[in-house]
């Protein structure tokens, strides 16, 4: 059966035609048997319908539907049933349900315009696609660009990316992102000038070459082909731009709801800027100008023309266009607007003349802006010069002819300006950095157009699209199948629609272009005559199948293009093809008092020719002829490169986001041959090598010794071992052919083989080097030993000789010494007695003198001490009498003494009275008893009084001691202050400390700096600042702080790659900032504050802390960014778990993207990097909050990068990989918790990655599983969950893909969320 039908039983899903949805899904409710004339179907709305469509055979059955498991496939060639409804449905599901705008169609990428900005083009996405295979990643424009880049480096052949589609389908945006990808991957770590200029050319060309049409708000009204040249290392060397068919008629006319070129509206929006006031653009522009108000659309929703002009000016500056030259361009553009407002009035009896008022304001402004004579311009706008019989005559023109001359001049000026700008861009995009090895061309040309009124521009645009479609057909269908037949491959030919007949109608002999050029050469040629010639040639004499005549018009014709049937109006074809401008007007412009560079553009002059055959002098060129030549050059360039195709689809005509019109979509799919492309891509072999090339490239995979002479035999022998499936390759006569993805598989095998070989070679070379080194060391050691032994022997002999000589000398010396001693002793014995007497006498005299002096000294000391004691006593008495505080302190004690005295007196009186009473009472007792008793009583009373007095005296003595202690402390502090003022050497010491702290940071060694106690430089510096402030030298304190800040900045710049030094200066900057802040006027309360104003220094230190903090995170973040994906996602920490080996994530080095040698990063590498940072911060005693914040930032970056890769790579979305990822993340989480870093939020960023790993492991079949996923994966958005489920790949035969019905229970219509791995958390100091 056709289209892969294998059964038509009850329950099977089929597609039936529909007038609204084109195709609708239905289900067979009754088995079909051969011979039945109808087929009972149940539609989606439960309605039963009978399908009757001449069911004469099984081939007339409706197309079968694909299984649900294949819905949303990212490559249309993977569908089981390849037909139009299956392709349309799959594109609709991906676009509406998955929000995926890209889909592979064999070798073609289909891109559907979403009509809104999507966050899938950031640098993190470019980094994710860089270095990856197309089959490993989701469809994306970056994947096509990456494939072209890798193919260029591998095969050393030029590449082309051809972006085609209707107007408004998104071609310009796709080309812009393609160039952005090349600028990022083809540049260095920091963008060089060429990459920056390539990106800067886009805003300029959009402003002067794009405009709003009814179908597209940013429609390219010209075509461009940009060649980006690369060097041997894959970096961008130069770029060159070629342009085609600028729509100059838009400068003077715009249809309803359309605009002129963007640059005019940008200038009008910026008319209030000071530098723009001289352009006289008026107050209500652009409504004021005729060239900008015809369409009625002054503003595009969502755009800001003023900010767009600022972007254009910045881009011109990047490309080397100076502000003076920019103002020259703006002056010319403003002059064009004023030229359109020049009022031309008719005169004469029959209105056969015209004139311009001498006081016309627009003409005056135009003449002033361009520096031309206004009267001359007014005259030649209304007159032309004729040459008759060798004489030159001046003939006036009527009003309509003068208006046409004015508009022709405006178009000519704008065209010259456009050409000069392109030439200036190409000059800026050339570089002298090296020789270009190969290039990648990006073609962004106008899409197929059909409007209510189609003219010469649409005819040329659609002709160019016909040529591109032919090139596509020749490459994909014709040349491909011819090569299969030539190589004698088993191949069933696929028929396709060839548009060669339509192209012959336009450019063939006596075709439409030939007839147009012929009519332009006629003196009285007209559009009506050309139309009649078309009818006669292609309808009457030889009817052409692609040419028709409208029923109700004799000045129009219809062409059946590959994409649609278009009716063209003949009016204006001849004038636009002639592109005529009068010579006199051009000469006036060249005579301008300003030297305007646009008029002297050498490129523009190539297309200007003086032609006088019509009786008057004009500048003219046959536009159609030039356009055909430039288009043929483009086709030759494309045919000499390896093409990569991007087909842009316009989903609706309303320009509304994510609305899918099946009629418009299927029309474009049919026109561009997508279905035939799918079939040939699924059945064909897109990759092919000659046997010699294959043998040269993959000979490392061959076993044993192979000869290049027998390359075919070697290939035939080895391929079955490398690729077990024989359907994936085929042997031709001179080439071996491979299906899609097999070359990438062989490249992985080759890279692995070379890596293993490199390791073996390295091991042998290292062993050989070690053996040579050992031999050399052994020879050196033996030589050293030999020389050492000789030296030791000579030293021993010399020692023995010296020893013998020393013994002789010692013997002689001892003899002489003993003899001299003997003579000396004998002489001394005689003198000893005399000396002994003298010593005794002198000793007695000295002792007597000493006693006298001692007595005198003691007496003098007593006198001096007595006098000093008296003075001190008088001083103390005076101080005691004069100090009020002392009196206040002793006042309480005096009161207590008085009370004690009174109490003592009372006790004495009381005792006296008691004694008298007792005496009178005991008179009759004996005197001894009376005396004894009275004495005992008095003793008791006196004893009590004595005890009380003693207690009060003790308290008084204690208070006196406290007061004396305070006096002593005060005296000690005064003495210490005096001592400090008497230390003159302190200034010199501070100077030395100043030099050490402020000059040494950038010169100190790393090991010495790290061995210092944490914060020592900051503390020493603060002491210096404190001393300078106390000494009253505020300027010195401020200069000291400023010098310290400068020195720390210098140290940070010197150690931009050293984490330990960055942490050291972060600690010191933070500590110095904290000390200065604590001792400021606003903070300190217990010590004298700093008098110097150090507020600017504290702000500088705060900025310096942030700089050191960010530098430290940047160093570690850079190291982690290059290994995060491989360590967290690809490393097999649990050995043997993964079903297959992942392609190692890599960056390129030269043409081969695979690394040769070296171990892949693991979790141990990540933990080492984090441990190094943690050790550096802990050694410097950095505050815990800052430590936690730093690791929160790094963990967020790592997890975001890893999650982005999971969302973009389907090889990571499987059960075993989810288990590996979960285990790796648990190791990271355990490391964080062991170091108590979880309090700062370092664990929170890991939650989305943990949940993504769990999502890959849980069940994904029932509704309960869906509810569990939604409840569990709270840190993942619904779009991210849907994306992971869409990319899920079965791990084994027991596993299966996630069904579309399960995904639909979870998903929400939204876009894919790419997590920002560059998010910076705020930190303050």
Automatic annotation (TrEMBL):
ATP binds at residues 165-172. CDD domains: MYSc_Myo5. Keywords: Actin-binding, ATP-binding, Calmodulin-binding, Coiled coil, Motor protein, Myosin, Nucleotide-binding, Repeat. GO terms for molecular function: actin filament binding; ATP binding; calmodulin binding; microfilament motor activity. Pfam families: DIL, IQ, Myosin_head. Residues 631-653 are annotated as: Actin-binding. Residues 71-751 form the Myosin motor domain. One of its GO terms (cellular component) is membrane. GO terms for biological process: actin filament organization. Residues 942-983 form a coiled coil. The keyword Metal-binding does not apply. Residues 1042-1316 form the Dilute domain. It comes from the Eukaryota. Belongs to the TRAFAC class myosin-kinesin ATPase superfamily. Myosin family. This is Unconventional myosin-Vb-like.
């Amino acid at each position: 059966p056709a289209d892969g039908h294998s059964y038509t039983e009850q329950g099977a899903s089929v597609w039936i035609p529909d007038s609204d949805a084109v195709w609708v899904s239905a289900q067979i409710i009754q088995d079909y048997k051969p011979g039945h004339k109808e087929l009972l179907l149940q539609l989606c709305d439960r309605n039963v319908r009978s399908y009757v469509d001449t069911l004469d055979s099984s081939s007339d059955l409706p197309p079968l539907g694909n299984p649900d498991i294949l819905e949303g496939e990212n490559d249309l060639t993977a569908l089981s049933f390849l037909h139009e409804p299956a392709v349309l449905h799959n594109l609709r599901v991906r676009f509406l349900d998955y929000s995926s705008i890209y889909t592979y169609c064999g070798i073609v990428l289909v891109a559907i315009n979403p009509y809104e900005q999507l966050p899938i083009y950031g640098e993190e996405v470019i980094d994710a696609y860089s270095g990856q295979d197309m089959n490993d990643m989701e469809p994306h424009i970056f994947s096509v660009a990456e494939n072209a880049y890798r193919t260029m480096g591998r095969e050393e052949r030029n590449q082309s990316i051809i972006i085609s589609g209707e107007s408004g389908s998104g071609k310009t945006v796709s080309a812009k992102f393609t160039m952005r990808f090349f600028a990022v991957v083809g540049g260095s770590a920091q963008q060089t000038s060429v990459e920056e200029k390539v990106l800067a050319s886009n805003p300029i060309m959009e402003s002067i070459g794009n405009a709003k049409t009814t179908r597209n708000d940013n429609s390219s009204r010209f075509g461009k082909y940009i060649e980006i040249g690369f060097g041997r290392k894959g970096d961008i060397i130069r770029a060159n731009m070629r342009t085609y068919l600028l729509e100059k008629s838009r400068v003077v006319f715009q249809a309803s709801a359309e605009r002129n070129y963007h640059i005019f509206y940008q200038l009008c929006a910026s008319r209030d800027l000071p530098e723009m006031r001289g352009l006289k653009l008026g107050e209500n522009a652009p409504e004021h100008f005729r060239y900008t108000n015809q369409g009625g659309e002054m503003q595009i929703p969502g755009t800001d023309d003023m900010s767009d002009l600022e972007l254009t000016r910045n881009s011109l500056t990047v490309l080397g266009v100076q502000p003076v030259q920019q103002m020259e361009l703006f002056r010319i553009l403003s002059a064009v607007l004023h030229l359109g407002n020049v009022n031309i009035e008719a005169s004469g009896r029959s209105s056969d003349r015209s004139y311009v008022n001498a006081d016309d304001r627009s003409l005056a402004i135009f003449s002033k802006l361009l520096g031309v004579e206004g009267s001359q311009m007014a005259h030649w706008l209304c007159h032309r010069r004729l040459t008759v019989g060798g004489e030159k005559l001046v003939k006036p023109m009527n009003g309509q002819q003068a208006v046409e001359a004015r508009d022709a001049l405006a178009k000519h000026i704008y065209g010259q300006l456009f050409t000069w700008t392109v030439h200036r861009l190409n000059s800026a995009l050339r570089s002298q950095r090296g020789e270009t090895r190969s290039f990648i061309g990006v073609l962004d040309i106008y899409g197929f157009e059909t409007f209510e009124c189609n003219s010469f521009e649409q005819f040329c645009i659609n002709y160019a699209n016909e040529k591109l479609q032919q090139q596509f057909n020749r490459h994909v269908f014709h040349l491909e199948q011819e090569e299969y037949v030539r190589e004698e491959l088993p191949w069933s030919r696929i028929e396709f629609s060839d548009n060669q007949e339509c192209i012959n109608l336009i450019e063939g002999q006596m075709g439409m272009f030939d007839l147009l050029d012929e009519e332009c050469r006629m003196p009285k040629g007209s559009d009506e005559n050309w139309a009649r010639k078309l009818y006669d040639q292609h309808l009457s004499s030889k009817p052409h199948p692609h040419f028709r005549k409208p029923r109700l018009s004799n000045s129009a014709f219809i062409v059946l293009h590959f994409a649609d049937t278009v009716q063209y109006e003949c009016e204006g074809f001849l004038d636009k093809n002639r592109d005529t401008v009068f010579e006199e007007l051009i000469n006036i412009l060249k005579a301008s008092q300003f030297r305007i560079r646009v008029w002297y553009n050498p490129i523009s002059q190539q297309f200007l020719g003086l032609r006088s055959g019509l009786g008057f002098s004009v500048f003219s060129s046959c536009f159609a002829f030039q356009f055909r030549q430039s288009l043929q050059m483009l086709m030759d360039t494309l045919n000499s490169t390896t093409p990569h195709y991007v087909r842009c689809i316009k989903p609706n005509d309303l320009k509304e986001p994510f609305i899918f019109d099946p009629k418009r979509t299927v029309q474009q799919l049919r026109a561009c041959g997508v279905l035939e492309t799918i079939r040939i891509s699924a059945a064909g072999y897109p990759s092919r090598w000659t046997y010699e090339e294959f043998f040269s490239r993959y000979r490392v995979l061959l076993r044993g010794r192979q000869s290049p002479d027998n390359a075919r035999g070697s290939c035939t022998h080895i391929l079955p071992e490398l690729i077990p499936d024989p359907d994936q390759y085929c042997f031709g006569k001179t080439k071996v052919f491979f299906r899609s993805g097999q070359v990438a598989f062989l490249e992985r095998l080759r890279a692995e083989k070379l890596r293993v070989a490199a390791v073996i070679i390295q091991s042998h070379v290292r062993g050989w080097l070690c053996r040579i080194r050992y031999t050399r060391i052994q020879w050196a050691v033996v030589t050293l030993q030999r020389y050492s032994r000789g030296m030791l022997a000579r030293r021993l002999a010399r020692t023995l000789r010296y020893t013998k000589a020393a013994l002789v000398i010692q013997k002689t010396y001892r003899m002489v010494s003993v003899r001299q001693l003997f003579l000396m002793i004998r002489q001394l014995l005689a003198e000893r007695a005399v000396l002994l007497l003298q010593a005794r006498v002198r000793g007695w005299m000295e002792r007597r003198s000493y006693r006298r002096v001692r007595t005198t000294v003691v007496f003098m000391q007593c006198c001096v001490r007595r006098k000093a004691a008296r003075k001190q006593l008088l001083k103390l008495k005076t101080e005691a009498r004069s100090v009020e505080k002392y009196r206040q302190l002793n006042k309480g004690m005096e009161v207590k003494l008085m009370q004690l005295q009174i109490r003592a007196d009372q006790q004495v009186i009381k005792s006296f009275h008691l004694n008298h009473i007792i005496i009178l009472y005991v008179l009759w007792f004996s005197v001894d008893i009376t005396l004894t008793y009275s004495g005992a009583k008095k003793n008791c009373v006196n004893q009590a009084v004595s005890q009380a007095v003693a207690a009060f005296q003790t308290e008084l003595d204690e208070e006196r001691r406290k007061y004396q202690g305070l006096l002593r402390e005060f005296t000690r502090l005064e003495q210490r202050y005096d001592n400090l003022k008497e230390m003159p050497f302190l200034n010199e010491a501070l100077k030395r400390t100043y030099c050490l702290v402020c000059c040494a940071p950038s010169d100190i060694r790393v090991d010495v700096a790290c061995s210092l106690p944490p914060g020592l430089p900051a503390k020493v510096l603060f002491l210096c600042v404190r001393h300078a402030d106390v000494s009253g030298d505020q300027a010195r304190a401020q200069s000291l702080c400023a010098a310290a800040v400068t020195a720390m900045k210098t140290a940070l710049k010197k150690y931009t790659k050293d984490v330990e030094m960055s942490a050291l200066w972060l600690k010191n900057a933070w500590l110095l900032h904290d000390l200065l802040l604590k001792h400021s006027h606003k903070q300190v309360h217990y010590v004298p504050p700093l008098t110097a104003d150090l507020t600017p220094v504290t702000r500088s230190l705060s900025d310096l802390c942030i700089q050191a903090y960010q530098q430290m995170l940047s160093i570690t973040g850079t190291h982690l960014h290059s290994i995060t994906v491989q360590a967290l996602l690809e490393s097999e920490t649990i050995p043997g778990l993964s079903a297959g080996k992942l392609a190692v994530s890599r960056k390129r080095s030269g043409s081969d993207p695979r690394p040769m040698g070296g171990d892949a990063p693991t979790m141990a590498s990540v933990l080492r990097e984090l441990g190094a940072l943690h050790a550096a911060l802990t050694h410097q005693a950095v505050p815990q909050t800052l430590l936690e914040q730093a690791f929160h930032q790094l963990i967020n970056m790592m997890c975001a990068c890893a999650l982005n890769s999971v969302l973009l790579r389907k090889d990571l979305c499987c059960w075993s990989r989810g288990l590996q990822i979960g285990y790796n993340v648990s190791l990271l989480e355990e490391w964080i918790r062991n170091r108590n870093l979880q309090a700062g939020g370092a664990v929170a960023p890991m939650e989305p990655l943990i949940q993504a790993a769990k999502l890959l492991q849980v069940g994904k079949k029932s509704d309960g599983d869906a509810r569990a996923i939604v409840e569990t994966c709270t840190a993942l958005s619904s779009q991210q969950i849907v994306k992971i489920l869409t990319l899920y790949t079965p791990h084994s035969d027991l596993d299966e893909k996630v069904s579309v019905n399960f995904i639909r229970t979870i998903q929400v219509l939204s876009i894919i969320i790419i997590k920002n791995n560059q998010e910076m958390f705020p930190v303050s100091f």
